[in-house]
């Protein structure tokens, strides 16, 4: 990184959000930008999560950029290896490699109110940027619970997102902690090779069959020769999920039929009534993320697998469950999720008032249209607060936010000079209040569960309570009335810091 480098835009992260932002910047004619990535390659969560069985639970043709269709997906639900290869392909297709700064972890971002720019300190040096686009994503920093005695465990310990491929699981006594989206893929993948597998389950998930199959050569040929067929396929996948949203957001009682399908899926593989009772959730389906697997329940029925309560403590090499069950284990694999509502990047962003984003969000994450936080000018998030989905592809939400980012930069160009936009607190509050009001009747609020969608105060600051179409409309254009316009005054004797004007007046 060049000394005292300055860029128009600094993008943080190189997953779907960061690479998508980089492509959109180039398509807008902006080439003065860098993509800061702490790892040594692109890919985000699809680079970090390489555990056995890792795959997407969104159909392949919907889990890809609309501007970079991929006719050669090998399966209807693609695995981690193919998704990561797709992101490498996008990087090359759009000429993004010259913009990458790999091995550049952001340590601190500080707003310079005098010069209306961000100073960014990284592990490879310092640079400044007019605009920061934070695309670190909510699934980037693993969370390991504070378990009594874990420090004294003599065996191997790792998180599913930091899989140790050098450790041989064959014949080992394995403890898998958690029953989320990663665990239900890991368990059937490793069960045949381990000596004994103990699954520590705090709360059972709802699991539907995963109707996955190889995409035939004829289908792929057709998608290559007639791209409109892939577009139709994508459109159908999207439309079905848009129609499902009403049940999640307005009529959760309609999800009872889906629960019956999930119970039948379990009953086909789990014949033991006691185990079936242990695996049956006591909350409305959809309250937690609905999981897809046709292999999870059959794996749990195997004789070398035990399902016990949540992990309560470690005593030497003994893992103790909340129900008192003890298991001697050689390795502990945490599949316990990520820092979603307390993202570590927020500790490293210092805004106009000299406080961190984490301090600003101490009562919950809040951002105007999921992008702009009050007091943090020219800073935008991709996959920000209340932009997550419970039933469709996050790529749809990312592309909507990229449109908002593009118009944000256009507005700065129209305003001219050294200018910044700072979300008005009243606008952030109004947007957040509307979102939270809509949240009250959703399954995520009424379903009777505690999920990773909720923050420490029980507030859902993660999920978008509507359709992707609604979000696309809400983020199509930047409304300057929702922002304060900051301008750097012309140099005069005794000039003070940058001035602020109303967006409407500007």
TrEMBL record:
SUPFAM superfamilies: FAD/NAD(P)-binding domain. One of its GO terms (molecular function) is NADP binding. The keyword Oxidoreductase applies. It holds the Pfam family FMO-like. It comes from the Bacteria. Its cofactor is FAD. Coiled coil: none annotated. Keywords: FAD, Flavoprotein, Monooxygenase, NADP, Oxidoreductase. Catalyzes a Baeyer-Villiger oxidation reaction, i.e. the insertion of an oxygen atom into a carbon-carbon bond adjacent to a carbonyl, which converts ketones to esters or lactones using NADPH and/or NADH as an electron donor. Thus, can convert bicyclo[3.2.0]hept-2-en-6-one into the oxidative lactone products 2-oxabicyclo[3.3.0]oct-6-en-3-one and 3-oxabicyclo[3.3.0]oct-6-en-2-one. Is also able to catalyze the sulfoxidation of methyl phenyl sulfide (thioanisole). Belongs to the FAD-binding monooxygenase family. This is Baeyer-Villiger monooxygenase. It comes from Streptomyces argyrophylli. The lineage of its organism: Bacteria, Bacillati, Actinomycetota, Actinomycetes, Kitasatosporales.
């Amino acid at each position: 990184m060049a000394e005292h480098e300055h860029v128009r835009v600094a993008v943080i992260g190189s997953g779907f959000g960061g690479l998508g932002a980089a492509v959109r910047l180039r398509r807008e004619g902006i080439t003065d930008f860098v993509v800061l990535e702490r790892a040594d390659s692109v890919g985000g969560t699809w680079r970090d999560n390489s555990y056995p069985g890792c795959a997407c639970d969104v159909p392949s043709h919907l889990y890809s950029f609309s501007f970079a269709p991929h006719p050669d997906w090998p399966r209807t639900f693609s695995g981690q290896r193919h998704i990561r290869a797709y992101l490498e392909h996008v990087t090359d297709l759009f000429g993004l490699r010259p913009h990458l700064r790999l091995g550049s972890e952001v340590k601190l971002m500080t707003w310079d109110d005098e010069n209306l720019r961000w100073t960014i300190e990284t592990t490879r040096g310092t640079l400044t940027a007019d605009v920061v686009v934070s695309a670190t994503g909510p699934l980037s920093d693993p969370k390991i619970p504070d378990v009594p005695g874990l420090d004294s465990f003599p065996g191997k310990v790792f998180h599913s997102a930091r899989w140790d491929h050098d450790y041989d699981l064959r014949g080992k006594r394995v403890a898998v902690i958690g029953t989320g989206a990663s665990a239900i893929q890991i368990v059937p993948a490793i069960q045949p090779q381990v000596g004994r597998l103990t699954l520590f389950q705090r709360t059972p998930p709802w699991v539907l069959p995963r109707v996955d199959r190889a995409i035939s050569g004829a289908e792929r040929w057709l998608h290559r020769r007639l791209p409109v067929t892939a577009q139709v396929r994508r459109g159908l996948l999207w439309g079905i999920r848009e129609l499902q949203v009403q049940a999640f957001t307005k009529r959760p009682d309609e999800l009872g039929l889906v629960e019956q399908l999930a119970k039948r899926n379990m009953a086909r593989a789990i014949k033991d009534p006691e185990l079936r009772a242990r695996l049956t959730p006591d909350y409305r389906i959809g309250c937690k993320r609905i999981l897809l697997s046709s292999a999870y329940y059959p794996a749990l029925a195997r004789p070398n697998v035990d399902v016990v309560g949540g992990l309560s403590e470690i005593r030497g090499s003994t893992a103790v469950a909340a129900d008192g069950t003890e298991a001697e284990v050689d390795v502990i694999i945490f599949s316990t999720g990520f820092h979603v509502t307390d993202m570590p990047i927020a500790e490293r962003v210092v805004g106009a008032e000299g406080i961190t984003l984490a301090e600003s969000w101490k009562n919950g994450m809040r951002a105007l249209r999921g992008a702009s936080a009050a007091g943090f000018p020219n800073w935008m998030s991709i996959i920000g607060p209340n932009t997550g989905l419970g039933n469709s592809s996050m790529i749809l939400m990312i592309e909507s936010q990229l449109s908002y980012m593009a118009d944000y930069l256009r507005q700065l160009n129209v305003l001219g000079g050294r200018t910044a936009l700072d979300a008005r607190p009243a606008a952030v509050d109004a947007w957040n209040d509307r979102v939270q009001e809509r949240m009250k009747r959703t399954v995520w609020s009424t379903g009777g569960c505690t999920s990773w969608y909720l923050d420490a105060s029980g507030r859902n600051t993660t999920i978008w309570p509507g359709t992707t179409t609604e979000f696309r409309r809400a983020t199509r254009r930047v409304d300057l009335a929702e922002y304060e316009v900051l301008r750097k005054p012309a140099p005069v004797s005794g000039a003070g810091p940058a001035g602020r004007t109303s967006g409407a007046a500007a």
